[in-house]
Design goal:
173 residues, mainly alpha, 78% helix
């Protein structure tokens, strides 16, 4: 009976993970703007997943929101096409966010959020500056891949903290 219960619990946790993956992809369809709101929720998902699952199971949440934003095409309007240039850096920034947050687990929670948010911000703002300097992307992306990324990462981390204070700590693997 214990084996059946353990397997059932594992199946339920897997279903929760798939729900989170679906939410990560469809979030830009459900909330197609403004970027600060969508970004805050995506970053919140990243922070929640890193505290409740393995790095391997977080990969879809690192990748899927930006693919959903491109598929939806509304977040940046006609300039959404420029988002393609940023995909690898958005994914790297999301992975950097969860990695820095994980690696600083001996620090106070809010300091971990700040370190993780700054790491993601610095990566994205550097590449936005390079792309803008090379005239590859419009000026809009200096703010959307800069200040807004920092604010949404900080807000998402704070929201994740609030959620974890009021919820069970079930794993999503």
């Amino acid at each position: 009976m214990k084996i059946i219960t353990a397997q059932l619990k594992k199946l339920l946790l897997l279903q929760k993970a798939w729900l989170v993956y679906g939410l990560a992809f469809f979030l830009p369809f459900l909330i197609s703007g403004p970027q600060w709101l969508t970004g805050t929720i995506v970053n919140c998902l990243l922070f929640l997943m890193v505290t409740r699952s393995s790095h391997k199971s977080i990969s879809p949440v690192v990748i899927l929101p930006s693919l959903g934003a491109i598929a939806n095409g509304i977040l940046f309007g006609p300039q959404t096409v420029f988002l393609y240039y940023f995909l690898p850096f958005i994914w790297a920034g999301n992975y950097l966010l969860i990695s820095v947050f994980s690696l600083t687990k001996n620090q106070p929670y809010f300091l971990r959020i700040v370190f993780a948010a700054l790491a993601k911000y610095l990566l994205l703002v550097v590449f936005a500056q390079i792309y803008f300097g090379l005239k590859i992307v419009p000026q809009l992306f200096l703010v959307s891949m800069g200040t807004i990324q920092l604010l949404t990462a900080l807000s998402g981390g704070t929201l994740a903290f609030i959620i974890t204070q009021f919820s069970q700590k079930e794993k999503y693997e």
